[in-house]
Amino acid sequence: MKIEFAAAPSAAGAIAVPVYTDAVLSPAAQAIDASSGGAIKRAIAASRFAGKPAQTLEIMAPSGSSASRVVLFGLGDKDKRTGSTLEKAAAAVVAKLLISGETRLSIQFDGETDGDGAARAGLGARLAAYRYDQFRTKLKDDQKPSLTELVIAVKDVDGAKAAWTGWGAVADGVDLAREVTNLPPNILNPETYAKKIEGMAECGLEIEILDEVQMTELGMGALLGVGQASEFESKIAIMKWSGGKEGEKPLLFVGKGLTFDSGGISLKPGAGMDEMRGDMGGSAAVVGLMRALAGRKANVNAIGIVGLVENMPDGNAQRPGDIVTAMSGTTIEILNTDAEGRLVLADVLWYAQDRFDPKLIIDLATLTGAILIGLGNTRAGIFSNSDEIAAQLSSAGDASDEPVWRMPLGPDYEKHIETKNADIKNVGEGRLAGSISAAEFLKCFVNDKPWCHIDIAGTAMGGMGGKDDPRQPSWGTGWGVRILDRFVRDNYEG
């Protein structure tokens, strides 16, 4: 969908105008009401529309207006409006008209918001317009998106266009993260995923791919053990953005990229196993973030590294009872082959900090079902050795509507991964503190670097309750791009 910013709405197509709490009309809504002989107020009186945030009311072909239809959208209390409010409002309008047959839409803000707010509305519109239809070959015309043009009318056109450079890049990153999460595992495997990442060099990123020969030479026994039964070779993809000062230490983002996780020999139940195509959601967030940083030419040095692996059962599969040696030299007893993501991250984390000496490390992974029990699917869990980073991420999560909740770490939980047979084991004590013991495992591979682990098993897939948020139309949510971009913007750019 093409998005433009202009001083006035388009002369044709649909128009959307804001209304505040208790159905208080904005100047734009008042003008249409006056020209249509009170059609706006009559429609509101006959409905339950009250101007609540993201609430909509559609009026077809009102008299006295050239618009094919008018959509009223709620902005809530005028003094409590935020960028999130604007995003959701624009998203609600786009979601309502996306397959309506309408091709052109104008959202008229005029003096109701500044340029950055208009650009945030554009972000909401883009997020709502995402569709994963590439394999749906039998769609009827009335099931296909018709909306192709969006004009956002705002007084500060230049400010909106400047802000859109950044927010549009974030939309690109989220769309990319959703795409790779949604792709089926017969299409996206470690090898094809690596090739897709290589194509991101067109965005200005420096790309490097490590293969199994190189990983073997590096001693990555933990990662290689997970993928040894797959017919597809495991890969590590490195994405580098050098937009900051020369010589300044980079921010490091690491993602788990299990393109499919059967559980291996510790086979998962059949019901719901298809959703394990999304077990690469952590890598999707990192890939999307790097796309966003490059797209908006972020003033920061950043490196994204993702471990791309498929976990399958066959005669060569890793077994419960195996002991592997990670790149760090740490020996790991494998008690459950379905606790595989932490093994992949162990080697990637160690390699990344050893090679790049980063300022800080953030890893993302769909790591444990236990985090769903604790936090549901609206918040991700964070585990950190740095109060500063944890606070920065919490603030960025609230600002981007990708909230997080900090979970504990400490000596009491370190005991959960102790074993008599190796340095550590890859699962904790039964069902107790599953997410925390997984984070304690990862902590073994970050030394004293400032670090945060984000468990996104509840937020990366399933739509995150998208029925309540029009910005989330997709099973693959793209969660993580927005919080990480905000984290970088607010704390690490000059």
Automatic annotation (TrEMBL):
Residues bound to Mn(2+) 1: 261, 338, 340
Catalysed reaction, written as an equation: Release of an N-terminal amino acid, Xaa-|-Yaa-, in which Xaa is preferably Leu, but may be other amino acids including Pro although not Arg or Lys, and Yaa may be Pro. Amino acid amides and methyl esters are also readily hydrolyzed, but rates on arylamides are exceedingly low; Release of an N-terminal amino acid, preferentially leucine, but not glutamic or aspartic acids
Active site residues of this protein: 268, 342
Chain residues that bind Mn(2+) 2: 256, 261, 279, 340
Compartmental location: Cytoplasm
Gene3D superfamilies: Leucine Aminopeptidase, subunit E, domain 1 (3.40.220.10), Zn peptidases (3.40.630.10)
InterPro entries documented for this protein: Leucine_aapep/pepB, Macro_dom-like, Peptidase_M17_C, Peptidase_M17_leu_NH2_pept, Peptidase_M17_N
GO biological process, one term: proteolysis
Domain Cytosol aminopeptidase residues, every copy: 336-343
Enzyme nomenclature, EC number: 3.4.11.1, 3.4.11.10
Comment on bound cofactor: Binds 2 manganese ions per subunit.
Signal sequence range: none
Named cofactor requirement(s): Mn(2+)
Pfam short name (any one): Peptidase_M17
SUPFAM superfamilies per UniProt: Macro domain-like, Zn-dependent exopeptidases
One term of GO molecular function: manganese ion binding
Keywords assigned: Aminopeptidase, Cytoplasm, Hydrolase, Manganese, Metal-binding, Protease
Keyword Ribosomal protein: no
GO cellular component labels: cytoplasm
Top EC group: hydrolase
Domain of life: Bacteria
Family membership noted in the UniProt record: Belongs to the peptidase M17 family.
Role description: Presumably involved in the processing and regular turnover of intracellular proteins. Catalyzes the removal of unsubstituted N-terminal amino acids from various peptides.
PANTHER family referenced in this protein's UniProt entry, alphabetically: CYTOSOL AMINOPEPTIDASE, LEUCINE AMINOPEPTIDASE-RELATED
Protein name, per record: Probable cytosol aminopeptidase
